[in-house]
Amino acid sequence: MSTDTPGIDPLLALRAPQDPACDVFLTGTVFLDIIFTGLDSAPVRGTESWARGMGSSPGGVANMATALARLGLHTSLAAAFGDDHYGEYCWDALEQGEGIDLSMSRTVPGWHSPVTVSMAYEGERTMVSHGHEAPAPSAVPGQAGAGSTETAPTAAPNPAFPQCPPRARAAIASLVPGRSEPWVATAARHGALIFADVGWDETGRWDLDALPDLAHCEAFLPNAEEAMRYTRTDCPRAAAHALAERVPLAVVTLGAEGAYAVDGRTGSAAQVPAIEVEALDPTGAGDVFVAGFVTGTLADWPLADRLAFAGLTAALSVQEFGGSLSAPGWAEIAAWWQRIRTLDDQDPTALERYAFLEELLPTTARAWPLRRAVPTIGFRQ
C-alpha cells in the first residue's frame, strides 16, 4: 500500500455528515495471484523455464478494490475467502495492508482459495487458474457474512451474495449475459451510482437486452470490440453514442488510442489519447481504468478530466508487474507529474491536459520511477 501521501482524499470537499461511510462497494471472487516475472520468452513445452522474479498478491476482484482504496476511496468488498493460508494472506493484505472494509466478507471452512499463476513476458501475460465456486451463504439471510465464518458450507443455495449491500456512493458490477444480480438493483435503489464493465459474450449473441442490470447503471465501460459487437456498429465512437441511449454515461476504451466517452444526458462527448509507456504487464489495467474513472466521477470532475485520470492510472499500472501490486496510489501519480514536467520534449498542450492534478497533488514527491516492495507469502514484516 502506498503510504507516501496519506492525506489525499479526492472527495474531501464534497463530504457531508449525512453521506454514507462507504464510497464504493463491490463483490466478486478473490484469487491468490502468483506472478512470475523476468521471463525472456514464453515457456516451451517439455522444458523448464526459470523466472528472475516472483511476487504474490490478492487478485480477481481484489485488483479493483485495491485500485479504489489506493486512490483514497472508502472501499467495501464482499467476497468469500478460503480458510487456508492463501485466504488468510489475502484477507490480511486487503484489510490491514490496503485498508479495505471486509465486514461484508466471509471465511468458508473447507473451501480452498482460487489461485491464478501468471507469467509475464514481452509485454503480455499467460495465466493458469484453478478454483471452485464458493458455497452459498447459510440458509437464513443475515446469519452469515459481516466478517463471519460459515458453519454450513453445504447449505442450500440462497439468493445472490450479498443480499443487502451497504449504503454507498457507488458500486461496481461486472455484467454477465442472461444474469441479473439482485444486489445491483438494491444498491441503485439506495442511491448508489452503478458502474459496470462486461466480459466476452460466450453465447455469441451480443444482445444488450440480455444485460438486465444495465438498466440500473450510471456508467457502462466496455472495450472497443465489446462496444461495437453490442451495438452492431463498425466504429467505437459510434458505439459509444449508441450505448449512451441506454445509459447516462458510455465509456469505450480504445487501447493505444485512449478512451472515448459520451454523456447521454447532455449529448457531450470527450476523447483523451493514451499515454505512451513501456508496458511490462497489462494485468489489471482495465480495473485500474475503471477505478480512476469512478474516482473522477464521484469527485464531480469534467468528463475529459475523468478520462484523462483513468487513462493515466492505467498507464502507470502497466509499467509494473501484477494486478493489485501495480495499482498506483497518489504517490505514484505525484512522482509521475513531478518528473514529466521536467522533460524537455514534452508537448505543453499535452501537459495542460493534466493540469487539474495540481490542486490535488503534494508539492513534493519521491523520485521517479517508484518501485513497490513485492509481497511474498513466505515473509512477514
Structure description:
- Helix 6 (285-298) packs antiparallel against helix 7.
- With 381 residues, this protein is α/β, with parallel strands linked by helices.
- The protein is globular and about 50 Å long.
- It has helices at residues 61-70, 85-98, 182-189, 224-231, 236-243, 285-298, 303-317, 330-340, 348-352; strands at residues 22-27, 30-37, 53-60, 75-78, 80-82, 106-108, 115-121, 124-130, 168-175, 193-198, 217-220, 249-253, 259-263, 269-272.
- It has a domain at 21-30 and 60-111 and 162-359: Ribokinase (UDP-N-acetylmuramoyl-L-alanine:D-glutamate ligase), CATH 3.40.1190.
- The strands form three sheets. An eight-stranded mixed sheet has the order 4-1-9-10-11-12-13-14, sandwiched between helices. Strands 3-2-7-8 form a four-stranded mixed sheet.
